[in-house]
Structure formats: C-alpha cells, structure tokens
Amino acid sequence: MVELDRLLASCLFEIDGCKDLKKLYAVENLVLGKNGKITEMLKSLRDMPNDKKRSLGAEINAAKDSILQRIEEKALQIEMADLEKKLSSEFVDVSLPARSENFGSIHPLTKVEEEISNILSSSYGFAFADGPEIDNEYHNFTALNMPDHHPARAMHDTFYMNMLADDEGRKLLRTHTSTVQIRSMKASEPPFRLFSIGRVFRSDYDATHTPMFNQVEALLVEEGIGFSHLKWLLSDFFRKFFEVPDLALRFRPSFFPFTEPSAEVDMNYEIKNGKMILGTGDKWLEIGGAGVVHPNVLKNVNVDTEKYQGIAFGFGLERMASLKYGIPDLRGYFESDDRWRSLFSFSHFVR
Fold it and tell me: Is the N or C terminus of the chain more exposed, i.e. has fewer CB atoms within 10 Å?
C-alpha cells in the first residue's frame, strides 16, 4: 500500500525530529491514538474481503510495530539526554559535611524519669531498685500490712492473673511499686535508701486515670528517721523538680495501711490567664502520698523496729509530667498519636 508506506516514512521522520517527550507523545497519539491514522486503517479492514483483510492487516500491524519500536527508542534517547543535561548543570561539593539527622524524640515520661532519677540519686543518695511487674498477693498486699478484707484487694481494683493461690497468694499485676521495696528489704540489711520507677496496673480509665501508669516511690530506713525528715525531703525534692524555689506544700492527714502516720501531699498554685502557675496563690493540688513506714511492714522484712524507722513517698509519673509540661489528658501518653508527640515530646538535644 503506497499510502501506508508514505504514512510510515512520514511518521518515522516526525519521531526522529522530536526534541522532547511531549512532542513525541503528540505524534504517537496522531498516528496510534483513538482516532489516529493507523487506527482508522485498522477499522477499515472490517468491510474488506477476508483474503485482502489478512494480507493488508498484516502490513498495517507491521507498520504499527515499527512505529512503536521507534517511539520507545526515541523516548529513551530523550530521557537520557535530559538526564545528562541535568547532571551537567548540577554540582555537588563532596567535601561538605553530611546533613545531621534527628531521628525520633524523647517521650515526656522518659524525660521526667531521668529528671527524677537524677535528683533522688545525686541530691539524696538514693539507689535505684527494680522488681517484677507480675507479682503475688503477699508482696503486693500482705507484706504491706493490708489484711485480707482490705478493699484494695477487690477484683475491681486489681488485675489477677488466675484464681489459683500458692503460699504467697494469687499471681497479679502489681498495683504499686511498693512490691519492689518489700523485695529489696528482704534481700539485704538496713539502712535502706532506695527508689523505684515502673509500670503499675489498676482497673480504671478516664481523663485522669489509666489502667496502666508509671509510679515513682522512694523509701528511706535509717536510725532516728521521722516525719519531720519526710517533710523536708519532699519540700526540697518538689522545689528542685518543678524548679520553683517558693513552692509550698501542705500535708493532709490520710490513711495508708503501710504508713502511720500517713499524709496526702498538696502543692499551692493559682490560675493566671488560663494557665496554672505553681508556687503562688492559695489553691491546692494533690501531688502524691507519703508517711512514716508502719512498724508491721518493717517486721515483715525482719527489720528491727526498735532500732530503725522509715519514711516513704510515692506519686504518678504521668501526673508529674503533666503538671510540669502542661499536658492536659493522661490518655495521650498511651494512644500513639503523632500529633500528641509533636506537641509534647523533646528533642534529643534538649535533655
């Protein structure tokens, strides 16, 4: 077909003259598109006799294959030419130092844990102690002077692992880190000056409570220790942690089975322009619990109560972080929300 030969030659000439991909694909559409010239030729075969249709169809398809092959070759040629042009115009100074990358961030709990650990160890000589998160009723309750009928043992407060009990009671998820204090005192001799930080578990969940949270507890057992030492220690510690020299504390009488006397500890604050300001004002906010260690607890770990006395205090790590860094809802600590982390996390370079 003369017409097909002319079309093929013209198309190949146009393809060879293309300088960019836009022009090249315009030629392809003109010849092979929905209404392209080759497409129209193939459509016209339907009205031809079968013998002519076969021979002419083969010629048209051969021409189509030639055009497609030339388009692919030209496209690759144009792409390589564009790449070479781009590379020749760009300059990379290989002597420059690499870009610094800051991967991840410091979680508020990690930062506050480090701050508390540094204060307790460097300022007062407390040593860190750790223990199992899965414990038993003896270490979690009995050794801490909690009788069998104490409400803290109820199922709605404690996550029990099973209902089978051995000599030390049923397995459970510890409800406080006081279990660490019991195990540490059983394993050594007084005096003791230790603190623990770790996860604890209770059946509760709302804006101010979560079924899993982190707790900080400190224990000091020495000769001649009393409530006055506890008041000074807590006042000094909270002023250091919150960096508020004039922070005032209030000790309200309370009851804990493992301390006597016991107290709830409050700190003063006021609200200015919708923001909580610590260390000023006449409003009070509960921050933790404290007291003189009950003699029964010391007897349970074979400490001579005629010679040694103890003081202890504890508070929630999330609550400390929220108060210091203005985090409104405890549930955000556990929900893995990138928006929350971008607001409240810390750079690796800010420790």
Answer: C
